[in-house]
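Lab meeting notes turned into a lecture example. A postdoc, R.K., suggested we walk through two folding results consecutively so the class can see how the record format repeats. The first protein's sequence and structure tokens come next.
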Amino acid sequence: MRITLLLALTLAIPAFASQVVYKWVDPQGVTHYSDRPVPGAERVELRAGTTTVTPGTPPATTSSTNSRSAASGPAYRNVEIWKPSNDEVFFNVGGKVDVNVRVDPALLPGHTLSLYLDGRLVEGFAPGAEQFSLNEVYRGTHSVVAVITDQSGKRIAETPQVTFHVRQTSAVNSQNSRPRGR
């Protein structure tokens, strides 16, 4: 009995060791994952300890820190938003949040680095800027994504989405107010 159970479990392990998901980026630059195929999505097979990416239909973008353009061939070893950190909380910032992006190797000629806040392109910065000082970022949860595009506008690489939170102390419910009745 024990041998039969052990054999059945050994044969079942590979079925649970891998999972197929589909990854795509929408027009606003937000990366999505699903267990169902979507036109333009990459098939990503997740296994214990490894990840295999298999393009289904040609993807709209290639995204990851180790992305490579099929046409031009340049690879960025690292493209990341290092400030703010994911799920960082800011208190009483007056609507101002600084975002810093790291690109390694440096941005290649003809490539542009753009930042998207809550799915919208942030304008008013130099095309290769790696430091952004955002204004009018008010209370709530926000997300940022940095995208590198080539001269034709094709996405070469993008960072994973970073989510951060802005909190504003209320005058009505201030943590610094004195308790009443004393």
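The second example is placed directly after the first for contrast:
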Amino acid sequence: MAPEIVFSRLAKLPAGSVVLDPMSGSGTVLRAAAELGHDCTGCDLDPLAVLMARVWTTPINTKTLYKRADELVETARSTSAAQLPWINGCSETKDFVE
């Protein structure tokens, strides 16, 4: 669905409205409704669309995200035993990785 249609229609709803999207696809309506503070429910028969909608509408805790990213970087830095000649042999690539 074109986002312009979604945003213009949802913006006209009273605050806290209930939005039902029976063919939610990738979740554009659901995401926009949630961001505007509406309660929303959607469904779709396409498993890929359902997965996309779940990803698109799942809230992210940024503190947890940054913590996990820091842990990942630390793990990557401490696991430097791999010998990658295509990196070690190219100073530009090695500088980029560092």
